[in-house]
Amino acid sequence: MALFFIIFFAVYGSANFYLFIRGWQALSAYPVLKPFYTAIFLLSASSYIVAKFFNERLTGGLYDFLLWIGSLWFAFMLYFFLWILLVDLIRLANHYIPFFPVYVKENYGLIKLITFAVVLISTGAIVLAGYFNTRIIDIRTLNITASKKGSGIKELNIVMASDFHLTPVNDGKLLNDIVEKINSLNPDIILFPGDIVDEKSKILDRRNIGKVFEKLKTKYGVYASTGNHEFISGIKQSVDYMQRHGINVLRDTSIKINDSFYIAARDDVSKKSFSGSDRKNIQEVLAGVDKNFPVILLDHTPIRLAEAMNNDVTLQLSGHTHHGQMLPINLITKAIYDVSRGYLKKGSTHYYVSSGVGTWGPPVRSGSRSEIVNIKIKFE
Predict the structure, then answer these.
(1) Chain-centre distance of CA 120, in angstroms?
(2) 175 Cβ contact list (under 8 Å, min separation 6)
(3) Which one, of 40, 26, 48, 136, lies nearest residue 366 by Cα?
(4) What is the DSSP string of 61-94?
(5) Which phi and psi (to 5°) does residue 196 adopt?
(6) Which superfamily is assigned to 137-379 in CATH?
(7) What is the pTM of this model?
(8) How many CB atoms lie within 10 A of CB 341?
(9) Cβ atoms of 295 and 285 closer than 8 Å
(10) N or C: which end of the chain has fewer CB within 10 A?
(11) How far apart are CA 233 and CA 122, in angstroms?
(12) Can you tell me the distance from the alpha carbon of 165 to that of 71, in angstroms, rounded to the nearest whole number?
């Protein structure tokens, strides 16, 4: 865990230093702008760190303000960095093969300022478009057939949503929209494979965000597994918070529903990094499960998918990837995971990895869409 923070601060600090210096240089012909630039940059770059470091010691309004600014800065920083990098590559190419017109050389200070302004406006436009894209929640439908004769039901209507990342940024207003969409699908059961909360419960309670979960309507209940952010936020208080608001959190265990099918859930693979102890292996999680019945497994991070197939799991539901959330990060998640978003089948086991219904960090999606997944299973 310590290594993660060392790497994070090294990368975050280096990227911000590079951006600050390049912006400072772009304003060299107009020094009157530098104090304003410095103040805005330092506020933006430090807000998220300050908010998370001081956390509950900040007043509600100040904490929310810093969190909003800092969260948006992550997205702004990414595209700011990519634009500046592109400009530097063009400058480097011109150094070896000169192609800039004479006008550029004669008015270099003005050109730098105009280029900087274009970069800022373009970055802002991408972030703004990504913010509005985040608010569009797709409902995806998946129809599958499973051969499990032990089931006492012929069909099961599942609604799955992952990666809410509830904070003062992803708040009750967004959650209310999500809950309304889920209820409109008339689910038999609702499943949340991790990263539901991303904040201390005291901060979520201040906004009564969890109360919205209590509006969910379902025949068999609401079940969830843990994600890495439940551990980051404090696993005990995260689980207590969810259960207090009607979500049954299963941790490395399984439960039989309506004498017809099983819901099993694994603690997230990140558990050891935060608690020092490993999660149970899949055989332990499924101990006592009658494999003649359908088994639906919640496992937040979609790795080692063959384990579910090798243990006769009917359907595994995962999240975590956000399908990259922002371009070009989705190219990275595609390379890392067998499936970054969507449906996969291995043997007789079905898999669905969701891009999530919320966002981590910036409330911005430029490389994926928010989604709720309606899975309709027919048993044969």
Answers:
(1) 25
(2) 164, 166, 209, 212, 213
(3) 136
(4) HHHHHHHHHHHHHHHHHHHHHHHHHHHHHHHHHH
(5) -80, -45
(6) Metallo-dependent phosphatases (3.60.21.10)
(7) 0.93
(8) 23
(9) no
(10) C
(11) 34
(12) 12
Say if residues 187 and 223 touch (Cβ distance below 8 Å). Answer: no
Q: Which residues of 265-302 are buried (b: 16+ CB within 10 A; e: fewer)?
A: bbbbbbbeeeeeeebbebeebbeebeeebbbbbbbbbb
Assigned token pair, 80: 């700011």
Distance of CA 115 to the CA centre of its chain: 32
For the segment 84-116, what is each residue's pLDDT rounded down to a tens digit? 999 999 999 999 999 999 998 889 889 999 999
Q: Which of 51-55, 60-64, 149-153, 329-333 has the lowest mean pLDDT?
A: 149-153
Neighbouring residues of 273: CB distance < 8 A, sequence distance ≥ 6: 1, 4, 231
Rounded Cα–Cα distance for residues 180 and 184 (Å): 6
Is residue 183 within 8 A of residue 212, CB to CB? The reply is no
Question: Pseudo-torsion of CA 196, 199, 203, 205, nearest 10°?
Answer: 20
The one-letter amino acid at 205 = D
Could you tell me the two tokens for 135?
A: 């608010």
Residues 187-206: tens digit of each pLDDT: 999 999 999 999 998 899 88
Q: List, for residues 130-185, the tens digit of each pLDDT value.
A: 999 999 999 999 999 998 766 678 899 999 999 999 999 988 888 999 999 999 99
* φ, ψ at 14 (rounded to 5°): -65, -45
Please report, for the chain, the start and end positions of each structural domain, with discontinuous segments joined by +: 2-133, 137-379
Q: Where are the alpha helices (DSSP H) in the chain?
A: 2-26, 34-54, 60-96, 102-106, 108-134, 172-183, 201-206, 228-233, 235-244, 271-275, 282-285, 306-310, 329-336
Q: How many residues are given for the chain?
A: 380
8 A C-beta contact, residue 314 and residue 350 = yes
Q: If we measure between CA atoms, which residue out of 328, 334, 254 comes closest to residue 298? A: 254
The pLDDT assigned to 192 comes to 99
**Both tokens assigned to 329:** 């990060």
